Amino acid sequence: MLSAEGVTLRFGGVTALSDVSIQVRADEMLAIIGPNGAGKSSLLNVLSGFYRPQEGRITYQGLDILGRPVHQIASDGVVRTFQGTHLFPHMTVLDNILIGRHARMRGGLAQAFVYFPWTRNEEARHREIAENIVEFLEIENIRHQPVGALGYGLRKRVDLGRALAMEPRVLVMDEPMAGMNTEEKEDLARFIIDVREARRIPVVLVEHDMGVVMDLADRVAVLDFGRKIADGTPAQVQADPAVIQAYLGAPA
Ligand SMILES: Nc1ncnc2c1ncn2[C@@H]1O[C@H](COP(=O)(O)OP(=O)(O)OP(=O)(O)O)[C@@H](O)[C@H]1O
Known about the structure:
- By secondary structure, the chain is of the alpha/beta class.
- It has one domain: Rossmann fold, CATH 3.40.50.300.
- The protein has 10 helices and 10 strands.
- A 6-stranded mixed β-sheet has the order 6-7-8-3-9-10, sandwiched between helices. A 4-stranded antiparallel β-sheet has the order 2-1-4-5, covered by helices on one side.
- The structure holds adenosine-5'-triphosphate.
- Residues 11, 14, 16, 34, 36-42 line the site of adenosine-5'-triphosphate.
C-alpha cells in the first residue's frame, strides 16, 4: 500500500534515517516505536511527503510518490495527524471537521462557508459527511462548541475527525495519545479500532506507550539511531534482544 525502500534522510550532519525500508500493508495497524530521536517522526514525514529523503524510494499503491506535492499525496489518501492538535481553536468542532473536507471541495474552502446558490448542494453534502463523522466519534453534544474550550482528549478526537474528513486510504498518526490520561487513551484507542473496522484502512502510528502498542498493533517496527532494528509482531519485537538493548541500553 505504502512503502519506503532504502530511505536515508539527513539534516546537515545529522542522519535522521539510515537505509530504512518499511512496508505498510493493507488493513494493518503498524506501530513505529523507538527511543527519543530514533527517527520515528522523520519516517512519518517521509512516508507522507513532508520530507524528501536524499536516498531511497517511497511508493504508494505501486507508484513512486517521491517529490509529489504534499497536498496531492494527502488528497490521494495518505492523511496524517501531528503531535498535539492542528485545529482552529475559535471555530466549532463541526467547522474544524469541515476544514478536513477542503481537499475534497470543488468550490474551494471559502465557498464552503458562503452560501452561493451554486455551491449549496456541495456544501450540504460536505456537511452531511462531517455530521456523520461527528456521530461516529460520539461528539454530537459538542459539535457547536469552539474547539479551544475542549479538553485535550476531545480535541484529539476532533483532530481524528478532521483527518477522517479527508477520506484517508492510509491514516498516519504521530503520537496520537501523547499527553493523555489512561481514560483518554482508552477512548481514542477504541475510536482508532472503530476507524479500522469501518473503513478497512491501514493505520500507521508512532507511540511511546508500550501498553498501547502491544494492545493495538498487528506489527511493530523499531527504530534506533535512524536504523530499523526490528520488525515483527508485538510479541516478537518485545522479546528481541536488540530492542531490549535499545530501550534499556544493556549490553547485548
Ligand atoms: N527538521 C529537522 N532539522 C534538523 N534535525 C532534525 C529535524 N527533524 C529531526 N531532526 C533530527 O533527526 C533525528 C531524528 O528525529 P525524529 O524527530 O525523527 O525522532 P523521533 O524518534 O520522532 O523522536 P521523539 O521520540 O523524541 O519524537 C534527531 O536527531 C533530530 O534531532
